[in-house]
Amino acid sequence: MTKPSSLSGTAGESLAAAHLRRSGYEILSRNLRVGGVEIDILARRDDTLCLVEVKTRKSNAYGAPEEYVDVRKRRRLIRAGKLLLQRKAHRDHSLRFDVVAVTAGGEASRVRHIEGAFEEA
């Protein structure tokens, strides 16, 4: 049985992917596992490879969705990004870490793309 929270997360990822496509990104993969880390969306625009973390919330009552990308998650995504760049297909790309924040509201859902949301420390 699927939890309601995972349904909203899946719907949020679909909204995020559609938003990225409309913004000129090529979606290379969704829910990609690299080094034990799940990358919600791997996208590319020009020579930039974007690891996109999608956070979906029903409201901002307990904080904006992007506030839920904690230090531990950022470190894991940075590690996964380094592993991706070692692959032959991605060696010539620069790397960026983005967050897509989705506030679910049915037809009135809000999608915000935060480019370069965090960097390698």
Instruction: Count all strands and give the number.
Output: 5
**Could you report the average pLDDT, rounded to the nearest whole number?**
88
Provide the low-confidence segments as ranges.
1-7
Cα distance spanning the termini: 39 Å
Summarize the model shown.
With 121 residues, this protein is of the alpha+beta class. It has helices spanning 4-22, 71-85, and strands spanning 26-34, 37-45, 48-57, 94-103, 110-118.
3D architecture notes:
The chain is α+β, with helices and mostly antiparallel strands and 121 residues long. The protein has a single domain, classed as Trna Endonuclease, Chain: A, domain 1. Helices cover 28% and strands 39% of the residues. It contains two helices and five strands. The protein has helices spanning 4-22, 71-85; strands at residues 26-34, 37-45, 48-57, 94-103, 110-118. It has a five-stranded mixed sheet. The longest helix has 19 residues, at 4-22. The chain is globular. The N and C termini lie far apart (39 Å).
Secondary structure: elements and pairs:
Elements (H helix, E strand, L loop, with lengths): L3 H19 L3 E9 L2 E9 L2 E10 L13 H15 L8 E10 L6 E9 L3
Parallel strand pairs: 3-4
Antiparallel strand pairs: 1-2, 2-3, 4-5
